[in-house]
Amino acid sequence: MIHKHSISWFEIPAQDLDRAQQFYQTIFDIEMIDMEFPGFKMRIFPTEDPMNSVNGALVSTSPGFYNPSDTHGTLIYLNANPDVQLILDRIEAAGGTILVPKTQISEDNGYMGIIKDTEGNRIGLHSNPLT
Q1: pLDDT, tens digit, 9 for 90 and up, residues 75-126
Q2: Counted domains in the chain
Q3: Spatial contact of 13 and 121, defined as CB atoms under 8 Å apart
């Protein structure tokens, strides 16, 4: 069986959920969806079609379950279409750091950049080739 998407869900650790929410809402110009469950809180990224798209959330849990990291572990890439530079231009003013500036992957695969968010997570950004 071939899956439509390689990723079905992602979670970005946050020590200060309100600060992390403000950061991502600012750089992507979005409103995140608040959800709370016993033992953890989430701020979900909005999506047009939640049943047929990849999605994820900022997550805050009891200490030790998730630890933000800028050097270890999995690196996820968030959609920065139509141009990764538009998102990178908002990073520092929102409290983040640009680790890798806009870089062309190839003519066919578009552009990427890597940031460190307000929680200390290393996050990739990707945009399709410019047309």
Answers
A1: 899 999 999 999 999 999 999 999 999 999 988 899 999 999 999 999 999 9
A2: 1
A3: yes
Residue 119 lies in a domain: yes
Quote helix, strand, coil % in the chain, to nearest 5: 15, 35, 50
- The pLDDT assigned to 26 comes to 98
Whether 99 maps to a domain, the answer reads: yes
Alpha-carbon gap, residue 77 to 80, rounded angstroms: 9
Residue listed under structure tokens 């939640």 = 50
> What is the residue range of 110's domain?
9-127
> CA separation (Å) from 24 to 51, 74, 78, 99?
22, 19, 11, 17
| Rounded Cα distance, 24 and 59, in Å | 13
Q: Report whether 30 contacts 24 (CB < 8 A).
A: yes
Alpha-helical runs (H) found in 37-102: 84-91
